[in-house]
Amino acid sequence: MERISTDTAKPTVADIIRRYGRKYEKTNPLLPEQIKAIADINRCRTPELGGDVFECEDCGTKKNVYHSCCNRHCPICQGLKREQWLADRKAELLDARYFHQVFTLPHTLNPFILNNKKVMLDLLFQAVMEILTLFALDPQWRLKGELGVIAVLHTWSQTLIDHFHLHCLIPGGALSTDRKRWKNAGKKFLFRPESLAKAFRNRYLNLLDEAYRQGKLIFPGKTAEYRAPESFFAMTASLRGKKMDRLFQGDLCRAGAGPFIPRPLHPPGSHRQQQNSGRGKR
């Protein structure tokens, strides 16, 4: 039975799922968590989940308010949590210049990531944090301190195709290793983009090669041919000459202008966030 929202002129994600969800499930292979998300969003704020009745003390008008599904992929349920997350992050922003850095994995890796999400996306976070930490301590960049990072994982592009990349909001400076002084970075860039891109690419591929050697990766379906070492290492070797990084930089948080979080770092429910304070993860 279709239940189309009449509260707004534009259809919601729930409206689309209720109208086309069953047909989509029949024609597309889905993972168990995807099936659960569709089912939860379909039932969200409907009588199927129960609810409460509110009555006006003056006129006696009654209104049913149905329970939420609370699925982390539901855009309606995650609205409050997203706003709270943004408020918490804004409260942590320094009165300083910020840089927006994006680390992107090549689409060649998409079939492998889709079958090894936890391993390969954990490696993405690990490679980015390790490289940023190393660069912050490198004397040639004149910081030699602890770098702060807010990182948000995005797994698709604006056209909703698989596109795995990490948005990082980085203050334009570092805390000295003795934690007593703040050191400002240069005005044009935090680190030289070409150097950072090359270091990130090599570190990620080295970590990926090591994960293969340790037997942490699986190769079902169309990726089966890469189970053989010669095939897998030939594939990763071919990527070492490809660009894996895009840089956005500028005054994303101006002194005296109030805190600002760029939209790509606004976390929808299905995105993963990580913060790094230089000494550990939180």
Keywords:
282 residues; alpha+beta; 2 domains; 5-stranded antiparallel sheet; 3-stranded antiparallel sheet; 7 helices; 10 strands; 19% strand
Low-confidence stretches: 247-259, 269-273, 277-282
Number of helices: 7
Strand numbers in spatial order across the main sheet = 9-3-6-5-10
Question: How much is the average pLDDT?
Answer: 82
Structural class: alpha+beta
Query: What share of residues are in beta strands?
Result: 15-25%
From the spread of the alpha carbons, the general shape counts as flat
| Number of separate domains | 2
What does the radius of gyration come to? Answer: 23 Å
Helix-strand pattern = HHEEHEHHEEEEEHHEE
List the helices and strands and how they pair.
Layout: H1 13-27, H2 32-43, E1 51-55, E2 62-66, H3 78-92, E3 98-104, H4 110-115, H5 117-137, E4 145-146, E5 149-156, E6 162-171, E7 173-176, E8 182-184, H6 193-213, H7 229-239, E9 245-248, E10 272-276
Helix pairs in contact: 1-2, 5-6, 6-7
Structural summary, described in words:
- The chain has 282 residues and is an alpha+beta fold.
- The chain folds into 2 domains: 13-66, no CATH class; 92-276, no CATH class.
- 36% of the residues lie in helices and 19% in strands.
- It is built from 7 helices and 10 strands.
- The protein has a 5-stranded antiparallel beta sheet with strand order 9-3-6-5-10, with helices on one face. It has a 3-stranded antiparallel beta sheet with strand order 4-7-8. Strands 1-2 form a two-stranded antiparallel sheet.
- Helix 1 runs antiparallel to helix 2 and helix 6 (193-213) runs antiparallel to helix 7 (229-239).
- It is flat and about 70 Å long.
